Amino acid sequence: MIIDSIPLVLKRFSDVEFHFVGDGPELENLKAQAERLGVSNKVVFHGRRPDAPTLLTEADIFALTSKAEGHSRAVLEAMQCSLPVVATRLGGFVDEVIEGENGYLVELGDVGALAQSFLKLLGDAELRMKMGRAGRCRVEEFFTLEKFYSRQLQLYKDLLARER
């Protein structure tokens, strides 16, 4: 989905590069798709990288367009690095990304909406910074280990109280 959006983005921002981190069964298909669309010169495939989170410090936007996903550590790491997030509207993403506040959610398969989200963010550095800060605040407020364990403990207490 991201690769399909690249030609649309390049019409307005020809100097943009898209970096993909990770391997997996679709990697070769993604490379072939980039070639087919004539955008392979604007795409960097890093493969599996143990230092993937450090690459976030060089990014302007983080995108993850999974077909199925629970909560995503990658999305939370991007938010922790103050990056706006563009993700598919499913699974844990809807808890992590608040539409228009710290990023954008797009429907699976809606390449036009994905490209529009990229274009909005690429065209407005202040918006990227604002959304990035909001994402970092969201992680600190809701997704730290302390918050997670506190919510889990409260859940157990509530369940035990109901049994009595």
From TrEMBL:
The keyword Transferase applies. PANTHER family: GLYCOSYLTRANSFERASE. It comes from Desulfovibrio ferrophilus. SUPFAM superfamilies: UDP-Glycosyltransferase/glycogen phosphorylase. Signal peptide: none annotated. This is Glycosyl transferase group 1. Residues 2-136 form the Glycosyl transferase family domain. Pfam families: Glycos_transf_1 (PF00534). The lineage of its organism: Bacteria, Pseudomonadati, Thermodesulfobacteriota, Desulfovibrionia, Desulfovibrionales. InterPro entries: Glyco_trans_1.
